[in-house]
Structure formats: C-alpha cells, structure tokens
Amino acid sequence: xxxxxxxxxxxxxxxxxxxxxxxxxxxxxxxxxxxxxxxxxxxxxxxxxxxxxxxxxxxxxxxxxxxxxxxxxxxxxxxxxxxxxxxxxxxxxxxxxxxx
Length: 100
Fold this sequence. Notes:
four-stranded antiparallel β-sheet; globular
C-alpha cells in the first residue's frame, strides 16, 4: 500500500493488491491533506515499523495501526489506520492516514 502511495495512487486504484479495497475519493483527499500537513514525504517502510505497529480484534473486525516511514524518520508519527472485517471475502479497508 505504501509503495502505491509513493507512486501517487492514494486511492489504491492502480494497485495489484487484490485483498485491499480501493480508497474512497474523499478518504484519499483526507490522506493527501494529512500527508501534506505532516511536511515530510513518505518513504518505503522501514523494518522498525513492525516493532511499533499494532493490531487488535474489535468485535467483528481487526483494527490495524501501522506507523509509517518518512524520508526524515525511520518510524514517524504518521499512522495508517485500516480494518479487516470478519467475512468470507474479507478485504482490508484503509480508513485514514494521520497522526493519532
């Protein structure tokens, strides 16, 4: 997903990620605004990301919080928020990218 974001595909509409929902245009616009407001461009994920990222079962879905990498920070305060519903054909849904 982050690699798609780096290529400017904030809707994940050109992505080959078949288990991830495309992002609604309004949500993608909010992500773009939050990325611009943060002030440091995204970078490919650093391996340290996985030491701070979390997931939690929330009564019907998994909630994922993934700390993102920027060109200035190995692990930034920017976090990707996503859900994975408990369903036979479940697909990951990105909810937001922001500083919690």
